[in-house]
Specification:
Helix content is 87%, strand content 0%. By secondary structure, it is an all-alpha fold. The chain is rod-shaped.
């Protein structure tokens, strides 16, 4: 309906303009470019006024409505973008805080792991030291026992040798030099004992 009314108004405007030109077309003289023609000016202003009235009544509200609607949509989009940006900034800050907290936790775990590893190393060293001390003590005891056993055996042998030597001396009942030679010859006749070192 608007289009029909608008096209009718334009047709009437063109017809009036043509009518005005035909009325002026009987020139008595050739008009110049800057010459003022009141009749043409009047009809041009009338047509312009009618056209402006029609545009004001039907076209401008639709155009202004579309422009306002577009402006409102742009404002809403800008406001939405601002909200999204603020929300993204908040999320970014939250993520940064979480990353820092995770770094702190990781550093704490690393420090705890190092402390546990150091304690385990210390405990293992202490346990190894104690085991080594135990082995050394046991070896010393065994060496001492073997030494005592060897000394006991050596004393027995010495006693046996002394008894054997004394019996030889008593049997022959000789002088002091002869006794010494007898003991030395008896000792020389015995097989050599291996050294226990």
């Amino acid at each position: 309906m608007r289009t029909l009314t608008l096209s009718l108004a334009l047709t009437i405007g063109n017809a009036v303009s043509l009518f005005a030109q035909q009325a002026d077309s009987v020139p008595e003289h050739t008009p110049g470019l800057v010459e003022l023609r009141i009749n043409l000016m009047f009809w041009t202003l009338v047509i312009f006024g009618i056209l402006y009235f029609m545009l004001q009544k039907w076209a401008f509200p639709a155009i202004l409505g579309a422009v306002e609607k577009r402006e409102k949509a742009l404002e809403d989009a800008i406001a939405s973008a601002k909200r999204d940006r603020e929300e993204a900034q908040k999320l970014l800050e939250d993520q940064r805080r979480q990353i820092e907290a995770a770094r702190g936790d990781a550093q704490k775990l690393i420090a705890d792991g190092r402390a546990v590893a150091e304690k385990m190393r210390h405990d293992l060293l202490e346990q190894t030291r104690q085991e080594q001390q135990g082995l050394l003590e046991r070896a010393r005891r065994e060496i001492e026992t073997e030494k005592d056993r060897a000394l006991v055996q050596l004393r027995r042998e010495a006693v046996n040798l002394a008894i054997a030597g004394a019996s030889k001396v008593i049997e022959e009942n000789l002088d002091n030099n002869r006794n010494r030679e007898l003991v030395e010859s008896f000792l020389a006749s015995l097989p050599a004992m291996p050294s226990s070192r």
